[in-house]
Amino acid sequence: MSVEAACHCGAVRIFLETPPETVTDCNCSICRRYGVLWAYYAPEAVTFVDPKGPTDTYEWGDRMITFHRCHTCGCVTHWADKDPTYDRMGVNARLLPLQVRDAAHLIHLDRAETANPIKD
Ligand SMILES: [Zn+2]
Description:
Bound molecules: zinc ion
Oligomer: single chain
Helix content: under 10%
Distance between the termini: 30 Å
Largest sheet: 5 strands, antiparallel
């Protein structure tokens, strides 16, 4: 069963082959500021309605990954590795229907300190 993630204005629409089993709340310097929940996928499991997408991007540090946000409404939509062979990307699970997000197991990731999951 595929699911669709969409930004607030609908300009960026992303189809995922399957609903996420987990979503990750990371406390690193950028994720905590974005307030996102990441659902991780292999890029081939993710389809963009408009692959050129109306997104603006942000990179920092070693610039290995690019963060995308909708050019119109500003919602953070996904990140992608700049290495096209890297088998992982992140889609903002906050863009999914609430029931899909709520059905996924929430993981708190302590990237800021240990890079380990935080046990609740
Ligand atoms: Zn938008």
